[in-house]
């Protein structure tokens, strides 16, 4: 429906199927004003149907009341203490303020020491009465509460909590080891209303906080901004709320310790590089799914939420590693172990129009000898953008079966997109049948309006309904649709999109418009008149002057034409402010307006409205942020119905705390701009904290046109992200890596490394899955005694062994990077030369990085198990092994390897291999039943200072012709080991001595 793109000449055959429409609101795909007329007209949803009320966020409202200045707070009474904590009743300490809702007069306080390193504070309404009868407390079946250790007590805890009623109730959580308050509400009042909850904590000046997602910004959160948590379908704005909700943060503090053991807090940015410091990290999780707003201030933060309870858990650490493990193991769950193939390279775009085009793309990867593991489909394959329904003209099932058989036989895979909304057929058109809706309607599994009728919004197909995950039948309905469709299309995973949940209109706009279905979205799709893509990355004009000038002129003309339309509400339009009504919740326009990214900050814009009602009577207002979480859960279990023995592969857009148990995540609809490549690193690191290590972004950018230089750098950077996918928008220029010769070469260079270290990737993920460790790591987390690393997010670690320092700016031929730990004896080796890096502690070192080269470094003390690169992971797994040993400052090193069949949910046979190097000997100990038949080819040892004498493998002397030592690089290479390991590299324990 969106035209057929000729990839050879880059032109469009414009569609003739749309009526006249205009818009000022963008969807998850970019949008622009447009007018189209033709002989045949399809109804277009009016653009103003997605317009919000004229609201203003209270944070910016000069007339907004500061609840801290007018509310009375609470006083604790009826206190009952025990060794595990206390309970109490909190009563209003004065006249209700009712500033943004109705004050709750009585609350229950519970303080519980859950474990030696975990403490919980919970505050909920005492009883249900006319003032708080509509309270929603988060369901523990959806988001479990943190677990409790039966031996926990205040005496055994790392933390201590104290409280006082002077002048009103407040509490302070202190770390016993330092005497430092990690959370302190002293000097503030607790505000607890039916649509507004607020608490405040002080923080040290120049604090180091990480997390509170999802946002695109630097890794360390700035102390002068407002962080909003409300799941939103919007194309990756910087510093605003995005698709997911993760109300968790890591707080790291650095101390100077004197000879008496006294700790003095120091600001990371002002630390003396010549001194040694210690650090303590703790985590805070706010178990609440309502819309939230966190105001970061110079010496504290204010946390506000539009409902629910206060349920705070503190994790004492004291390292980032321990905080992250504790958060996952005790609270949100461990991340899913991905199938081995998922770490290969993935190719996608919005605009692959048929199976033949997909086959051409796959063939081109083979032709140019670029690894390709999985080909993806965006919404192009769908019949009228309907889930679980192929377009039989462009993606017929019979042709698809043939294509997928061939694809699978080559060792490759196929993953399509599924959206969260379900098309509702036109009742006036008997040929517009849609079995998925019919089955769902029969089981009554869709969201409702308050009056009990089906809630009908609008997404890509036109007017749509939405699954209600509170209905006990809905998960079975969803699983059945996946199973039924899989019988027609042999998918290898599912890409879940639009699950915030998104709707292109405000309210149940389709209730009286179903006779218009199928309908065009209320904005122009990319490539349609008025929304032709002319954008290129910064720096494009330097190397492509003629093309850049033409694009700039055309873009200006398009923008001028669009400006002749509606300019939007006048700046003099009065703001809509909602006055609280006692005992009544205003669901669609709550009295407190969070700093939401949509038009007017309206919660109903571009989303299912807050008054949509679930099976159990709960309204969307209370659970909006959980929709994406629950559809990922349903999809995970649906794929298990397809094959109960195979790990489901899911990449989802909207996530919540704990979604990593079921799915990975991609960074959403970014742009082909250098800034988005830059911010992809802190995005990925943040999701490491959130327990979703399977993360990547749309490489080379989604919105806009990329260019050769940006795609060159980005394809190399993403090769070191767990999820590695190239994806771009409809009508943009092609950006498969083979389009440009230099990009193809750069891609193959980076993929040579990625495919060689696939066993390392897989081992890291198994450790994350079993222990809660991170895969991509910030330097500050791995080197916690160095305050200078607190804000570094332009380079990162992959596990503990590899460090990547990418170029993140145009026209650069070098990059600056820091090599942490040098002061304490760390050694870093260049991946390519194998030589030790010559750098000084704490100094940014200039590293040559011409276009097509990404600097990669190996940390001394590491052992990396590797196999040979290939075009697919299946082929790579059948190649001989090699070991890269990077000796540390004392000549020692260690490493691990985990292997299984790469896909089973509960593998019957596994293998764990431990590598240990000391005193010029590499010892290998293998445990498990997995039989690894591939032999060992070579061991390369970095940092061997003197020429070795006789080299022995086990009891046998390795022939001198297979032993090489470079006196300049200090590299020892021992080859010819395949005959000595004919039964498999790790079929038994062995030692290599030199």
UniProtKB/TrEMBL annotation:
EC number assigned by the record: 3.2.1.20
Residue ranges, annotated region (Disordered): 561-587
Keywords for the protein's UniProt record, in alphabetical order: Glycoprotein, Glycosidase, Hydrolase, Signal
Signal peptide, first to last residue: 1-19
Biased segments, Polar residues type: 567-581
GO BP field: carbohydrate metabolic process
Coiled coil (UniProt feature): none
Protein name: alpha-glucosidase
